[in-house]
């Protein structure tokens, strides 16, 4: 049996997604067919975790019912079957982002992927990996550049790498509207820059950053480029070869897959030159009592028992998204995102962060309600069956730059209708009156 399966109820049309198709799509997502606090669930928190179609749920169950065994270790039938579906899933994810299978490393999530990368850089800095690894080594005088809009997962690992190696961490600031100061980026990215790491799409602002411009700046100085693709890979077509990034990280649970599975993409030559971080079984060729030799990528970064059922389910999720059409999903979410922003802008006392209506963004909007804490906003919406995210969204520096402590965030996906957005907007309009704020 193949790793990935076609959705049972989804039959995409050639035209754009509309509400009628979304209602068919929703039939594949059992969790959405429920009531919360006596009201139909309106799920607008996919930026944190997306929901799973039946085909993904069934794929993971099928693995445990039919194929449960360790991969790359046994010669018996079950072990071979498990290895086949595990590697088929890798091929599916590689195809999803236009990479080669040996450029896809399984991790637990994107956070682990970025930590794997930074700790592997540390090993290169500690003179592990030989001559091929020297381009990853950092020390005093070297610089790592990030942006002021980064999720903590793409900030703290670089902070720690700088602390371990003596390198300097610098960042590209954002303006008052939250847009990257590209004029300053040209001054910050320079001869000392060894790594540029930035988010493709902001989980707070909804901004889609100009990857090509930033990559061009980095290439002028020979810097490596790392892309946090957590909010882009699930929502718009991503071609890592066309983007020409050296590494990219994304999570399964944000793209209809299960929790516990993430991906580190890396150009094959770079992965094979990078020293491993986690070591142990299944990532070696030869071991003696005083040294070990390692397999080529991706196995050299996959020590120990792997996330087999999760990988299989993620391959199924990628197939589901491709069956729908990533360009169609992106267009639908852009429509929902614009509906969110324009609707929020029309409500008195609401400050939307990120691009204003009419400017391209992914299908999310974070906002502040004057006089009402985001946690109270979230509770008010939850009472009406509307699930949103509240807090700093793991982006404290960005909130601080915008003069905020926290925001409320609504984020859409392919299973949301315009009615979902309208129900949310109607509820938000009632927040300030409910709390007696004038």
From TrEMBL:
Catalyzes the removal of elemental sulfur and selenium atoms from L-cysteine, L-cystine, L-selenocysteine, and L-selenocystine to produce L-alanine. This is Cysteine desulfurase. Its EC number is 2.8.1.7. It catalyses: (sulfur carrier)-H + L-cysteine = (sulfur carrier)-SH + L-alanine. InterPro entries: Aminotrans_V_dom, Aminotrans_V_PyrdxlP_BS, Cys_dSase_SufS, PyrdxlP-dep_Trfase, PyrdxlP-dep_Trfase_major, PyrdxlP-dep_Trfase_small. Its cofactor is pyridoxal 5'-phosphate. Keywords: Pyridoxal phosphate, Transferase. It comes from Arthrobacter koreensis.
């Amino acid at each position: 049996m193949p790793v990935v399966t076609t959705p049972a109820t989804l039959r995409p049309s050639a035209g754009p997604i509309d509400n009628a198709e979304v209602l068919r799509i929703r039939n594949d997502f059992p969790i959405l067919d429920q009531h919360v606090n006596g009201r139909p669930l309106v799920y607008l928190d996919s930026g944190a975790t997306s929901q799973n179609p039946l085909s993904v749920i069934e794929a993971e169950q099928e693995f445990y019912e039919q194929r449960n065994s360790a991969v790359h270790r046994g010669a018996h039938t079950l072990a071979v079957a498990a290895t086949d579906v595990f590697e088929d899933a890798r091929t599916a994810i590689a195809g999803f982002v236009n990479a080669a299978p040996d450029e896809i490393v399984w991790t637990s999530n994107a956070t682990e992927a970025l930590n794997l990368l930074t700790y592997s850089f540390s090993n290169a800095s500690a003179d592990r990996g030989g001559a091929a690894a020297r381009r990853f080594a950092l020390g005093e005088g070297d610089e790592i550049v990030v942006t002021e809009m980064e999720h903590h997962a793409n900030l703290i690992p670089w902070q720690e790498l700088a602390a371990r190696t003596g390198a300097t961490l610098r960042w590209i600031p954002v303006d008052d509207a939250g847009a990257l100061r590209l004029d300053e980026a040209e001054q910050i990215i320079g001869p000392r820059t060894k790594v540029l790491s930035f988010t493709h799409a902001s989980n707070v602002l909804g901004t889609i950053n100009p990857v090509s411009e930033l990559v061009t700046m980095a290439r002028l100085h020979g810097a490596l480029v790392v892309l946090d693709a957590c909010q882009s890979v699930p929502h718009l077509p991503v071609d890592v070869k066309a983007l020409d990034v050296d590494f990219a990280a994304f999570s399964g649970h944000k793209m209809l897959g299960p929790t516990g599975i993430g991906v580190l993409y890396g150009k094959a030559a770079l992965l094979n030159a990078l020293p491993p971080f986690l070591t142990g079984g299944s990532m070696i060729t030869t071991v003696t009592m005083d040294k070990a030799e390692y397999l080529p990528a991706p196995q050299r970064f996959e020590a120990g028992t792997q996330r087999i059922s999760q990988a299989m389910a993620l391959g199924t999720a990628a197939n589901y998204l491709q069956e729908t059409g990533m360009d169609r999903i992106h267009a639908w979410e852009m429509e929902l995102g614009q509906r969110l922003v324009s609707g929020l802008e029309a409500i008195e006392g609401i400050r939307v962060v990120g691009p204003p209506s009419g400017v391209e963004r992914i299908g999310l909007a974070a906002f502040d309600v004057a006089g009402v804490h985001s946690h109270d906003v979230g509770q008010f919406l939850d009472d009406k069956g509307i699930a949103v995210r509240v807090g700093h969204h793991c982006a404290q520096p960005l909130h601080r730059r915008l003069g905020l402590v926290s925001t409320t965030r609504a984020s859409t996906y392919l299973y949301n209708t315009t009615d979902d957005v309208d129900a949310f907007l109607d509820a938000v309009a009632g927040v300030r009156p409910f709390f007696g704020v004038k």
